[in-house]
Amino acid sequence: MTHTITHRLTYDAPVEAVAAMLADPAFREEVCRAQHVTEVNATVRTEGGRTIVKVDQWQPTAGIPSFAKKIVGDRTNIVQDEVWTSPTRGDITVTIPGKPGDMTGTAVLEPTPEGGTVETVTLTIKVKIPVVAGKIENLIGDLLLKALKAENRVGREYLAR
After folding, report:
1. 3-state class of 23 per DSSP?
2. Tell me: the pLDDT tens digits for 83-95?
C-alpha cells in the first residue's frame, strides 16, 4: 500500500533565487527549527554537476497517535536526501533509519508569469507494516503537508530578507 502527496509551494522570487535557497544549509536548518526539530545537521555538496542535500534531523513525536508512537518512540530520526540533477529538478528520498518505510519523489521548480516560482513536491509514502500501513501512511502524509507548509512560510521569509 502507498499514499502519494503533491503540494505546491509558491515564492515571490525567481527560480534562481529559490534554487540557491534550497541549496543553503542554513535555510534547511531554519526550516527544521520552525518545525521544533531538536537536532539537525544539514549539508550540501556538489558532485558531478549535481547538488546533493542531506538533512539529518531528530523530531519529538509528542502528539502523534499511540499506535504510531509504539513504532517510532518518543522521538524519531528522519533523514532527507535530495539529488538535484539541475537547478530546477531534484529527486527526494526520506527515510527513518531502522523503521519499515520511506518516502520517495521529486521537487520541480517552475517560473510563474509574474516572475515568481512554484515548487511542486510529489512524494509517495510507503510503510511496510501489515494491518496499520494505511493509517500510518495517512498520518505521515498529514505531517508531511504541515512540514511543507512550514518550509514555504520560512522560505518566503528567507527570500524577503
Report:
1. coil
2. 999 999 999 999 9
